[in-house]
Amino acid sequence: MMVSSGFQCIFSKGVKMMVMDRSSAIMSIRVQKEILKGMLLGVRSDSPSEGLRFAAQSLCSVQGADALDSLAIQIERGRAWSESLAHIAGVPESIMAAVRSGEATGNLRAALENINANISAQEKVEGRFSQAMAYPRTVGSIFLLLFPFIVYLCRNGCVEFLSIMDGLSGMHDVQLKFMKLMSSIPEWGFIPLLAVCLMMLVALNSQSFITRYMLGFLNIIPGFNRILRSQRLSMLSFNLALLTSGGVPFDEALQACSAGLSPGRFATALDNAKRMASAGSEPWECLSSDTLYPMAIGWYLKRGGSEGLSDSFTDLAEYYAEDMEAISTGLAPILEAVMILVLGIVVGTAVGMIFTPLLRCINGV
């Protein structure tokens, strides 16, 4: 009974850690695209709420359908699109910023099409990294499935050798300690180990592992973090192009883009740019920084000031979207090689630690 309750406790806690919590987790790329397509259908139709519900009926994912139904209810209550989206858990800041930009200019459809194009680029990046992880993920899954049984067999072998060997002659202290340690594992200890490995297997094969953990970790590595930066600058450029083309003053456009951003270097840089714009600085001066656009892009914006700032931002949005895809194309093979190397080290170390002392004991070394 105690073993069963302990197993249930470990399993329930593991599931809570591994499964995405809809109240706090960011939606997956697939769900974001489903919601955007539904919103575009709602904007294009005479009755937005009916368009949203029609789109919800054709969706396969429960999360996307529930989000569109909730959005339709908020729209029927007379709330604005941005206010309605705020009631849906997991909507990323980029979509919220795009919708606010569309409302500010009265061109919500263009804003949704812009963010949809940006998310399509993200989807391609995610697909490349998922493909690069296919082989390491398969090998890791096989290892996680076999590891509990390997430990179980090794434990039983250690128990047998300790019971039949007289005096344990020829054994090193390390080997003796290892065998005693393995033999001290109770038989039911196999169950929680299997549960942990199964939960790790679920996490390794879930798409959220790639989007939330793997890519998040890789963003601290030079080169990989350019993907996140290009994605942010592409979306910022789309929103600024839309706002400036609608006649919104530049400082107010920056305010709309920075609203709702979580604290960080990017949000701080946008706040600084907003203050500079309010003080009368030129757009290229406000946006030229290490976190935002580099100086070369600032020079491009300076030229665009007289030729059309909105067109310049549109070109930049397309440039950074293509840059994001190009970076992922080059880095995906590197990710695959690194993951295979790390996986080989982990598997080799784990198997070696278990079997080397046991084999030496068998050979009498």
From TrEMBL:
Say yes or no: keyword Transmembrane present: yes
Name the membrane topology term: Multi-pass membrane protein
As for subcellular location, the record says:
Cell membrane
Top-level taxon in the UniProt lineage: Bacteria
Return the Gene3D superfamilies for the record. Type II secretion system (T2SS), domain F
What the record says about family reads: Belongs to the GSP F family.
One Gene Ontology cellular component term attached to this UniProt record is: plasma membrane
Query: Span of the secretion signal?
Result: none
Q: Which ranges carry the Type II secretion system protein GspF domain?
A: 48-152, 239-357
Give the transmembrane region(s).
Answer: 142-164, 185-204, 334-355
Q: Does the keyword Nucleotide-binding apply?
A: no
Q: Which UniProt keywords apply?
A: Cell membrane, Membrane, Transmembrane, Transmembrane helix
One Pfam assignment: T2SSF
Q: What is this protein called?
A: Type II secretion system protein GspF domain-containing protein
| PANTHER family, sorted | GENERAL SECRETION PATHWAY PROTEIN, TYPE II SECRETION SYSTEM PROTEIN F-RELATED
Q: What is its main location?
A: membrane
